[in-house]
């Protein structure tokens, strides 16, 4: 029962109150939800600094359970990873994200969409080919797609991951290291990884305005990334003061509730296309 072990280590379970539900029930229900297309995809914009122009969005999966209501993504992603469903879930996210990307690009918008990629999905046989097939199917260039892969997962199997990521990059797809700063990786590794950018974890970002040391750490990460010609995203920006500090530190992109909360993809796109026409 791999899923039972997962429960203890899922961060989300600490605050998510549905303790009476056995995890294999959730696993079973998630499998059904995937088969019956019951997941939803939300989009959250990333704003480029200094002018806050929006040229990319992060795709975030949502699951509303028929009886239990909204299940936190951290919880169902972990269940999917441990229970052999992450390949299907990733393909679902990618397919829906590319469908939306095709709509946006079809309207003449040069935007990108970032999809979260678990190492288990990356390493499944044939994954790179599936990505190329889907890009072809939706007729969008690789340049429109970004994968975010968490630092800790990447470091667990750095050699194999690097090889696969390099293959994806050959088609123009970009790779960003997610939750940067939390995975104990040596900064020196950055030089050797086939990646285009880092996304600084929100735990650092959210302390910036009240903690000088957190601020200095973020500034140092940004400077180092820039030395290595990597782009920097900061996530979890909730106030103007933090945005201003990041602007001064020459951060490239910011994401967070201050800019916009994640919202259903259809709504985000409809608004964007309307704003663009006006
Ligand atoms: P993540 O990739 O680090 O995603 C960022 C999380 O921060 C999202 O949580 C987002 O809703 C939240 N967030 C955005 N702005 C703010 C802010 O200003 N303040 C705060 N406090 N939070 C903010 P969410 O949607 O709950 O997703 C949690 C995690 O689940 C994601 O973390 C990602 O690792 C995973 N996930 C979500 N969708 C997918 C997916 O389709 N595939 C995979 N493999 N993982 C996914
Ligand atoms: Ca992410
Ligand atoms: Ca993150
Ligand atoms: Ca995270």
From TrEMBL:
GO terms for molecular function: cyclic-guanylate-specific phosphodiesterase activity. Residues 23-276 form the EAL domain. This is Diguanylate cyclase. It comes from Luteimonas chenhongjianii. The lineage of its organism: Bacteria, Pseudomonadati, Pseudomonadota, Gammaproteobacteria, Lysobacterales. The chain holds residues 163 to 440 of 440 of the full protein.
């Amino acid at each position: 029962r791999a899923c039972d072990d997962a429960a203890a280590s899922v961060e989300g379970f600490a605050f998510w109150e549905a303790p009476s539900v056995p995890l294999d029930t959730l696993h079973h229900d998630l499998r059904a939800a995937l088969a019956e297309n019951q997941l939803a995809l939300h989009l959250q914009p990333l704003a480029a600094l200094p002018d806050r122009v929006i040229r990319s969005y992060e795709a975030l999966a949502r699951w509303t359970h028929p009886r239990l209501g909204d299940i936190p993504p951290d919880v169902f992603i972990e269940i999917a990873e441990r229970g052999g469903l992450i390949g299907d879930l990733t393909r679902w996210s990618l397919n829906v994200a590319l469908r939306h990307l095709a709509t946006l690009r079809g309207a003449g918008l040069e935007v990108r969409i970032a999809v979260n990629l678990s190492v288990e999905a990356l390493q499944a046989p044939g994954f790179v080919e599936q990505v190329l097939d889907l890009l072809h199917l939706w007729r969008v260039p690789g340049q429109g797609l970004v994968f975010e892969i968490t630092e800790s997962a990447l470091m667990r199997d750095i050699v194999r991951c690097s090889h696969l990521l390099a293959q994806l990059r050959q088609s123009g797809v970009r790779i960003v290291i997610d939750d940067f700063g939390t995975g104990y990786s040596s900064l020196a590794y950055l030089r050797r990884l086939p990646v285009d950018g880092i996304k600084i974890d929100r735990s650092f970002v959210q302390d910036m305005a009240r903690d000088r040391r957190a601020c200095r750490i973020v500034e140092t990460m940004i400077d180092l990334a820039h030395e290595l010609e990597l782009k920097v995203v900061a996530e979890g920006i909730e106030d103007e003061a933090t945005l201003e500090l990041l602007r001064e530190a020459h951060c490239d992109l910011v994401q967070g509730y201050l800019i916009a909360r994640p919202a259903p993809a259809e709504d985000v796109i409809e608004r964007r296309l309307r704003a663009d026409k006006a």
